[in-house]
Design a protein that fits this description.
The protein is mostly helical. The protein contains 16 helices and three strands.
């Protein structure tokens, strides 16, 4: 849930913070931990402003353009002000102008970004904070751009592989509804005029067809309402996590989900380590991006590192490695190229995931086509069975 926190900074300036938290008390505590004195907290609807939604802020273009301006030798404040001046969307411009004001007041860029947590995720803020210590902000932004591009590429492959089966299923459902609501009732009228007894299954089909013809608006509205309710329940309620837990319990699917999440984890760790962040801090920073099934394991791995264990042992003992990842981690420990090896681990498993998705779609699409064809064929067969019987009796 999103909250707008009105607070006083240490300079006695009134500021407004966007905070994503479970309730108002958590939002107030988070603002207080940042050093602000909270004046008021109110919940914000997602549609009240463009900048309220983290998915809508153009983070990747912002990172690319800021990196290009900084690499050209333009100062940080002037670069962000330039991006704000060229921005046509008022809400995005307000966010960038707030960042400029905060930086101009003497605050670091990471602190300015943290005030707009809805627009700038914690991982991006942590990357900037690590770069501020090493002084390589353009390089850090370039690494973040590469990271987001690779993550988005994997996501696009998965989504793209699912588009055709979903489209095929939708077309099959529409064809089935057309047969039931339009074709079957006309066959029913012909058979009623003929006055012949029909097989039981054909009678049931014709009953369904007459019902669809008489109440097609109600049926269509009910199906649309059911689809909308299901989408809302998955995204807004506890049903989504429950479905996710069920998928994780399926052996084949759960293992693929685990490998996919581990690839994201290693990709994130490699980028943070390359930015100069210590391994323990990088692991803690990466915790939020993991699903609930893996977060406790990562916390245990962090505790194991605190006792002096090697990163490979801590990750392996808590189920956060694969055979390939374990061996690459050991190579990274011996050679001191941990960030590079974590990137290689992520690339290996992302390619493995892409092959698995491609194999699944190649197998699933023919099965889905056969299932849809079987349903449509059964409907057509039941419609024509009386015709076949009539032809047989005439012979």
């Amino acid at each position: 849930m999103r909250f707008e926190v009105t607070a006083l900074s240490d300079r006695a300036e009134l500021v407004r913070l966007d905070v994503d938290a479970g309730d108002a008390d958590v939002a107030q505590r988070e603002a207080a931990e940042r050093g602000y004195r909270v004046v008021a907290v109110r919940s914000v609807r997602a549609w009240h402003g463009w900048s309220r939604s983290p998915a809508r802020f153009p983070l990747l273009p912002f990172s690319q353009e800021l990196c290009a301006l900084l690499a050209a030798g333009i100062g940080l404040v002037e670069s962000i002000q330039t991006l704000a001046d060229k921005e046509e969307r008022p809400a995005v411009r307000r966010v960038l102008q707030d960042v400029v004001r905060t930086i101009s007041a003497g605050e670091p860029l990471s602190a300015a970004l943290r005030e707009h947590a809805i627009a700038f995720p914690p991982l991006f803020v942590a990357t900037v904070r690590a770069a501020e210590r090493t002084g390589d902000l353009p390089e850090a932004l370039a690494r973040f751009v590469a990271y987001r591009t690779q993550i988005d590429e994997v996501r696009k492959k998965v989504v793209g592989a699912l588009i055709y089966p979903v489209l095929l299923l939708s077309v099959g459902a529409l064809v089935t509804l057309f047969l039931l609501a339009y074709v079957v009732p006309r066959f029913a009228a012909v058979y009623e005029d003929a006055g012949r007894d029909l097989p039981l299954l054909s009678q049931l089909l014709l009953v369904w067809g007459r019902f669809f013809e008489a109440h097609w608006l109600v049926v269509l509205g009910g199906l649309l309402a059911l689809a909308a309710l299901l989408a809302y329940a998955i995204t807004r309620s506890a049903l989504g996590p429950r479905l996710s837990n069920l998928l994780w319990q399926v052996p084949a699917i759960g293992e693929r989900l685990r490998v996919y999440q581990l690839a994201r984890l290693y990709r994130t760790l490699g980028m943070l380590l390359q930015s100069g962040m210590p391994i323990v801090a990088a692991l803690k920073q990466s915790s939020d991006m993991l699903p609930p099934q893996l977060q406790p394991r990562l916390a245990l791995a962090v505790q194991a590192l605190g006792t002096g264990q090697l990163i490979s042992s801590a990750m392996h003992e808590n189920g956060l490695t694969t055979p390939v990842a374990l061996r690459m981690l050991r190579v990274g420990e011996r050679s001191g190229r941990m960030s590079e090896l974590m990137g290689r681990i992520a690339t290996f498993h992302e390619e493995e995931m892409a092959r698995a998705v491609e194999w699944f779609t190649r197998l699933f699409e023919p099965i889905l086509m056969l299932a849809i064809g079987a349903v449509i064929g059964l409907i057509v067969l039941l419609m024509y069975v009386p015709v076949f019987e009539l032809a047989g009796s005439l012979q």
